[in-house]
Specification:
The chain is mostly helical. It has one domain: Helix Hairpins, CATH 1.10.287.370. A two-stranded antiparallel sheet has the order 1-2. About 5% of the residues are buried. Helix 1 packs antiparallel against helix 2. The longest helix has about 40 residues.
Length: about 110
């Protein structure tokens, strides 16, 4: 049974760790894509609401419930949600970048 260089991991452990890291990158990429789609939808709603009067009625989906609000009430909430989505995207992107670097170092054997 062959062992890797200095880490003392068996070939099976190396392959398992490599596959785990690849799965993490894939999972992070999928989550980022999902959040980016949500963020784009929020931006579209914001761009639609901004030119409207603040007292105009609009409807906002909260969970599974459609709630009547004014543009003045809904716009700040939608903007805040979009900003939170962008922060989550940024954090996940950094995490993915770190995982990709670790994966590259693992492939090289460092």
């Amino acid at each position: 049974m062959a062992a890797s260089s200095s880490s003392g991991m068996s070939n099976e452990q190396i392959v398992a760790r490599f596959n785990e890291m690849r799965q993490q990158v894939s999972s992070l990429t999928a989550k980022i894509a999902d959040l980016e789609g949500d963020c784009q939808e929020h931006t579209l709603v914001i761009n639609t609401l901004e030119p409207m009067g603040k007292e105009r009625q609009c409807y906002r989906m909260i969970g599974d419930v459609l709630v009547e609000r004014t543009v003045g009430e809904a716009l700040p909430a939608v903007t805040r949600n979009r900003d939170n989505l962008q922060q989550a995207i940024d954090q996940l992107s950094k995490q993915r970048e770190t995982t990709v670097k670790e994966l590259s170092a693992f492939q090289v054997g460092g």
